[in-house]
Fold:
Amino acid sequence: MISIEVKDLSLGYEKQVVVKDLNFTVHEGDYLCIVGENGSGKTTLLKTLLSLNEPLQGSIVFSGGLKRNEIGYLPQQSNVQRDFPATVEEIVMSGFAGKNSRRFFHDESQKKTAKENMEKMRVADLSSSSFSHLSGGQQQRVLLARALCATEKVLLLDEPVAGLDQQSSTSMYGLIRDLNREGMTIIMITHDIEDVLQDATHVLQIGHTNRFTDIKTFRSGRKEEDHVG
Structure:
């Protein structure tokens, strides 16, 4: 079943086009990797899918009962975020903010879900710890648990292993793979395409020429390029 359909989408700021004529479809359970040079519009695309930016033209259609406030988002971390003065549990619980527009307190169901997500991300034993005192890998797992509190369907991830060492990166990619195999739809910006080729189902290349392909076609194209080279 189709979750998101993007048609003739152009993105940018103040009428200056960053990327144009994007067309792709995301089905339930897909693992889409978005690749491209810095400044090509990858993060702008994620923010547009979240309605944080308006498209210059084209359309984004959500299907299968998916709503924009039911999409989990893991943005790139800033130094301000890394030093945020809150406990792990408080950070994770804040993932419900988009669902609590009419109440100020978390119900028991949300508390249970937050605990399950912390356990899934292997940070439950850190629930009372200060977020700012955690390692980079631990912080990313906490923020992923937070994103899971916002959704049971789709996760948008913006370079989730940026700044992490190899061990932490491998662990993070493993957790994302497990989530996808459990049915979560993944849309992820990455520069480490080689590390996720075995997991991805599709690749969206953004640049001078936009190209959306299934992973089999993408691999075949890379083999042909290597052969020519």
Remarks:
- Residues 77-152 form one domain.
